[in-house]
Amino acid sequence: MTADESLQLHYPTIFADFPTLAAAQSTRYGGVSQPPYDSLNLGLHTEDDREAVLENRKRFFAACGFRPDQTAGSHQVHGAEVLKVDAAGYFTGYDALITDQTGILLTVTVADCTPILLYDPVRRAMAAVHAGWKGTVSRIVVRALDAMREHYGTEPADCRAYIGTCIDHCDFEVDADVADHFTDTHKHWDEAKGKFLVNLKQTNRDHLQQAGLPGQQIECSPYSTFSRHRDFFSHRFEKGKTGRMLAAIGLRS
C-alpha cells in the first residue's frame, strides 16, 4: 500500500435515499503514511508523522464533501458520554457525537472497535458512535439515541443505522473478565481456542432494535478489521502499532 493508491472508502447503502447526507468509513488505502501506518492513517494520537496524518484527513474529508474546519471529533476514552455538537471542533472525553446542524461532519476513530452511524431523516439529526466493548456494554448507541430524542425529538423508528467494520465475533477472543459482561446470546466458548468469542456487531444491533429501530433499517458491515487487516487497521492484529480509520456522517451545505 503506497501513497499513489486511490482513496477507497466504504459508503453505507442504508443512507442511499438521502443525497445530501455524507456517510463513510475509511480503509487503509489512498494516503501518504509510511509503514506501519500505510497508508491512510487518520489517527491524530498515533506515532505517525503528523503532517502525513493531516494530509490523509484532508483527503478523507474532501471525499465526504467537507473541509477540515467543518469537522467534529473527540479524543475518545472508551466511555459512554455523548456530546451535542453545535459547531465544528475537537473535543475530549466523548465517545458519541450528535448534531442536527448542516455543514458539520461528525467523526469517530476506530481500529477494531465498532463505529455506528445514525441518521434521523425526519428531524435531520445524526450521530457518530464509537463502541468498544466497554461502550457496547454501557449501551452507548442507545444513549446516543436518547440524546437525539431529548435534543431533537428523534423517534428511533424513524432512524437508519450503519454498524461499521470492526473486529468480528470469530476474531474477538476474550477471557471471562470481558465475556462476563455479555449475555449468552452475544458470546460463546471456543474449546479449541480456550477463549470466549464475543459478537460486538450483534450486541449493538440488538441494542438498536430493542430501542425501536426496525431491523430492515439497520445495515451491518460484513468485514472484520482483524481478518481483513490488509484492508483495515487492526489494533489487535498489529499489536497496537498501526493506524486508525474514521467513520463519519454529516449533512452537506
UniProtKB/TrEMBL annotation:
Lineage of source species: Bacteria, Pseudomonadati, Bacteroidota, Saprospiria, Saprospirales
MF (Gene Ontology): copper ion binding; hydrolase activity; S-methyl-5-thioadenosine phosphorylase activity
Keywords: Hydrolase, Metal-binding, Transferase, Zinc
Zinc as UniProt keyword: yes
InterPro entries on file: Cu_polyphenol_OxRdtase, Cu_polyphenol_OxRdtase_sf, Cytotoxic_necrot_fac-like_cat
Catalytic reaction annotation: S-methyl-5'-thioadenosine + phosphate = 5-(methylsulfanyl)-alpha-D-ribose 1-phosphate + adenine; inosine + phosphate = alpha-D-ribose 1-phosphate + hypoxanthine; adenosine + phosphate = alpha-D-ribose 1-phosphate + adenine; adenosine + H2O + H(+) = inosine + NH4(+)
Domain of life: Bacteria
Annotated CDD domains: YfiH
NCBIfam families: peptidoglycan editing factor PgeF (TIGR00726)
Family to which the UniProt record says this protein belongs: Belongs to the purine nucleoside phosphorylase YfiH/LACC1 family.
Name of the protein this chain belongs to: Purine nucleoside phosphorylase
